[in-house]
Amino acid sequence: MINRRLLRGIELRYALTLYLHQHGPQTVSDLVDALEYQGFEIIGRPSKSVSDALRWETAHGRVCRTARGKYRPLEMPRSTEYRIHKRVVALRAEAARLTGRDDDTFWDRIARFS
Protein backbone atom coordinates (compact mmCIF):
# COMPACT_ATOMS: atom_id res chain seq x y z
CA MET A 1 0.00 0.00 0.00
CA ILE A 2 1.29 3.45 -0.92
CA ASN A 3 1.19 6.08 1.80
CA ARG A 4 -0.21 9.35 0.53
CA ARG A 5 -0.23 12.85 1.99
CA LEU A 6 -3.75 13.73 3.08
CA LEU A 7 -5.01 17.09 1.79
CA ARG A 8 -7.91 19.04 3.23
CA GLY A 9 -8.82 22.60 4.06
CA ILE A 10 -6.30 25.27 3.23
CA GLU A 11 -3.74 22.74 1.96
CA LEU A 12 -6.22 21.38 -0.59
CA ARG A 13 -7.21 24.88 -1.68
CA TYR A 14 -3.61 25.96 -2.10
CA ALA A 15 -2.62 22.83 -4.04
CA LEU A 16 -5.58 23.25 -6.41
CA THR A 17 -5.03 26.97 -6.90
CA LEU A 18 -1.34 26.55 -7.63
CA TYR A 19 -2.02 23.70 -10.06
CA LEU A 20 -4.55 25.83 -11.94
CA HIS A 21 -2.11 28.75 -12.09
CA GLN A 22 0.65 26.50 -13.40
CA HIS A 23 -1.39 24.46 -15.90
CA GLY A 24 -4.34 26.62 -16.90
CA PRO A 25 -8.03 25.65 -17.13
CA GLN A 26 -8.90 22.17 -15.83
CA THR A 27 -11.89 20.01 -15.04
CA VAL A 28 -12.53 18.74 -11.53
CA SER A 29 -11.70 15.17 -12.57
CA ASP A 30 -8.38 16.33 -14.09
CA LEU A 31 -7.53 18.10 -10.85
CA VAL A 32 -8.34 15.01 -8.77
CA ASP A 33 -6.18 12.86 -11.06
CA ALA A 34 -3.30 15.35 -10.91
CA LEU A 35 -3.34 15.48 -7.11
CA GLU A 36 -3.45 11.70 -6.85
CA TYR A 37 -0.55 11.44 -9.29
CA GLN A 38 1.46 13.82 -7.12
CA GLY A 39 0.97 11.55 -4.10
CA PHE A 40 -1.92 13.32 -2.41
CA GLU A 41 -5.16 11.86 -1.08
CA ILE A 42 -8.45 13.69 -0.65
CA ILE A 43 -10.91 12.76 2.09
CA GLY A 44 -14.47 11.80 1.21
CA ARG A 45 -15.81 12.15 -2.31
CA PRO A 46 -12.85 13.78 -4.11
CA SER A 47 -14.94 15.60 -6.71
CA LYS A 48 -17.10 17.23 -4.02
CA SER A 49 -14.12 18.14 -1.87
CA VAL A 50 -12.37 19.74 -4.86
CA SER A 51 -15.44 21.70 -5.95
CA ASP A 52 -16.03 22.89 -2.36
CA ALA A 53 -12.40 24.02 -2.09
CA LEU A 54 -12.59 25.83 -5.43
CA ARG A 55 -15.80 27.56 -4.36
CA TRP A 56 -13.79 29.21 -1.58
CA GLU A 57 -11.06 30.23 -4.04
CA THR A 58 -13.72 31.59 -6.42
CA ALA A 59 -15.15 33.75 -3.65
CA HIS A 60 -11.66 35.16 -3.02
CA GLY A 61 -11.04 35.93 -6.70
CA ARG A 62 -8.17 33.52 -7.37
CA VAL A 63 -10.15 31.02 -9.48
CA CYS A 64 -13.13 31.33 -11.83
CA ARG A 65 -15.75 28.70 -12.63
CA THR A 66 -16.22 28.65 -16.42
CA ALA A 67 -18.74 25.81 -16.68
CA ARG A 68 -20.03 22.93 -14.60
CA GLY A 69 -16.93 21.17 -13.28
CA LYS A 70 -14.46 23.46 -15.11
CA TYR A 71 -12.26 26.11 -13.54
CA ARG A 72 -9.58 28.54 -14.67
CA PRO A 73 -7.11 30.70 -12.76
CA LEU A 74 -7.49 34.43 -12.18
CA GLU A 75 -4.92 37.03 -11.16
CA MET A 76 -3.63 37.06 -7.61
CA PRO A 77 -1.17 39.27 -5.73
CA ARG A 78 2.46 38.22 -5.90
CA SER A 79 2.71 37.93 -2.13
CA THR A 80 -0.27 35.53 -2.09
CA GLU A 81 1.18 33.51 -4.95
CA TYR A 82 4.53 33.32 -3.15
CA ARG A 83 2.90 32.13 0.09
CA ILE A 84 0.84 29.50 -1.74
CA HIS A 85 3.82 28.31 -3.79
CA LYS A 86 6.04 27.99 -0.72
CA ARG A 87 3.44 25.94 1.15
CA VAL A 88 2.64 23.63 -1.78
CA VAL A 89 6.33 22.95 -2.47
CA ALA A 90 6.66 21.76 1.14
CA LEU A 91 3.53 19.59 0.76
CA ARG A 92 4.89 18.06 -2.45
CA ALA A 93 8.19 17.26 -0.77
CA GLU A 94 6.35 15.53 2.06
CA ALA A 95 4.18 13.58 -0.41
CA ALA A 96 7.27 12.54 -2.36
CA ARG A 97 8.91 11.28 0.82
CA LEU A 98 5.81 9.30 1.84
CA THR A 99 5.35 7.69 -1.58
CA GLY A 100 9.05 6.91 -2.02
CA ARG A 101 9.43 9.34 -4.92
CA ASP A 102 12.16 11.34 -3.30
CA ASP A 103 14.21 11.91 -6.46
CA ASP A 104 14.73 15.27 -8.17
CA THR A 105 13.49 14.05 -11.55
CA PHE A 106 10.03 13.23 -10.19
CA TRP A 107 8.95 16.87 -10.22
CA ASP A 108 10.32 17.30 -13.76
CA ARG A 109 7.98 14.49 -14.85
CA ILE A 110 5.08 16.17 -13.00
CA ALA A 111 5.49 19.28 -15.15
CA ARG A 112 4.81 17.18 -18.27
CA PHE A 113 1.68 15.60 -16.72
CA SER A 114 -0.60 18.47 -17.72
Question: How is this structure best described in words?
Answer:
- The chain has 114 residues and is of the alpha+beta class.
- It has a single domain, classed as Winged helix-like DNA-binding domain superfamily/Winged helix DNA-binding domain (Arc Repressor Mutant, subunit A, Orthogonal Bundle), CATH 1.10.10.10.
- 59% of the residues lie in helices and 15% in strands.
- It is built from 5 helices and 5 strands.
- The protein has helices spanning 10-23, 28-37, 46-59, 78-99, 105-111, and strands spanning 5-7, 26-27, 40-42, 63-67, 70-73.
- The strands form 2 sheets. It has a 3-stranded antiparallel sheet. Strands 1-3 form a two-stranded parallel sheet.
- Helix 1 (10-23) packs across helix 4 (78-99) and helix 2 crosses helix 3.
- The chain is globular and about 35 Å long.
- The two termini are 26 Å apart.
- 26% of the residues are buried.
- The mean pLDDT is 87.
Short description:
This protein is of the alpha+beta class and about 110 residues long. The protein is built from 5 helices and 5 strands; from the N terminus they run E-H-E-H-E-H-E-E-H-H. A hairpin with a 2-residue loop joins strand 4 and strand 5.
